[in-house]
Design brief:
Two copies of one chain form a homodimer. With 189 residues, chain A is α/β, with parallel strands linked by helices. Chain A is built from nine helices and five strands; from the N terminus they run βαβαααβαβαααβα. The first copy, chain A, has a five-stranded parallel beta sheet, with helices on both faces. In chain A, α1 packs across α9, α2 packs across α3 and α4 packs parallel to α5. Chains A and B meet through α8 and β5 of A and α8 and β5 of B.
């Protein structure tokens, strides 16, 4: 029996605005699975402090040990436990999307895009402990994501939300897209 | 002395609509350098028939021999011979963009995006000799581009044009963006 869930996967470079899309999804009644949380949980299980550095190292180890879709696999129990509308935030490769598609039959891939300059300025303004302080740090962090294959997932997205304006503009576009996906899904059922 | 040209590089998966953006650029007075033409010229120079298969093989050989930015380098003479507004169509990796930036000081990277489903239907409708006839052929051809690193260039684009509607809609968006870039450049000069 095909899975009846609407599964929306979100991919975007650091600072592109993924979490705003997740916020809108929550408002619309989606359960949100944050892929980074699955890695954080795995870090705790292994007794590691969940610093950005540790998490990135752990992800590398996990991928080497258990294949490129390991983080998606860590999310399966969370998706299984979710309701009919699920948004997965933090796709980093097409392998992960394909793992979700193999398991749940269908997953809509949404990319959030902002230019490097815009993302850098946002991350600097945000100033989380882990956020880059210089252009070089920013580019290095981008490079980690790009190495995993995030660009391929962005290139192969089913929908792109361009986020060069205000948070409200992005949220409006996200609301419109998600509402359309929910309606389309309802129409198919 | 910094180069005074406005150099716009266009990246997009097969069938995304790059050539429509080039068409608009020509209308606006840009010289258009098609990266594939540079490879075709190199093929002729080597006495090769310019079939899709031969060109892809030649690009692979060139990259192995002369590095990941070789196709950009083959375009330098064409850009050098161009006027103040140049659009380079057919970027396949960030290495190529960086080569243009090293040589010309600045290059604006524009990605054209359409979903895999939309691109497949367009390419099938277009039916050039080299276009895919099945979903499998389409995905294989995408894979060739993704292997070169086209996804990274798309992820790192300065601007994205989403092309899910009519050709006219894309051309309107492209005209607006290019006009803005030309004006910005004029303002800076």
């Amino acid at each position: 029996m095909p899975d009846k869930r609407l599964l929306v996967c979100v991919v975007g470079m650091p600072g592109s605005g993924k979490s705003l899309v997740a916020e809108v999804a929550r408002e619309l009644g989606f359960d949100v699975v944050v892929m980074g949380d699955a890695v954080r949980r795995e870090a705790r299980r292994r007794g590691l402090e969940p610093t950005g550095e540790n998490l990135r190292r752990l992800m590398k180890i996990l991928r080497a040990e258990r294949g490129p879709a390991v983080v998606a696999e860590l999310c399966f129990p969370l998706v299984d436990a979710s309701g009919p509308l699920v948004l997965v935030d933090g796709i980093r490769s097409l392998d992960e999307v394909e793992a979700f598609r193999r398991r749940y039959g269908r997953a809509v891939l949404v990319a959030v895009h902002a230019s490097p300059r815009t993302r850098f300025e946002r991350l600097r303004a945000r100033g989380r402990r882990d956020d880059p302080r210089s252009w070089e740090e920013f580019r290095e962090r981008d490079e980690v994501e790009l190495q995993v294959g995030i660009g391929t997932a962005i290139a192969m997205a089913d929908h792109v939300l361009v986020n060069e304006g205000t948070p409200e503009e992005l949220k409006r576009a996200a609301r419109q897209l998600l509402t359309k996906l929910v309606a389309g899904e309802a129409g198919r059922a």
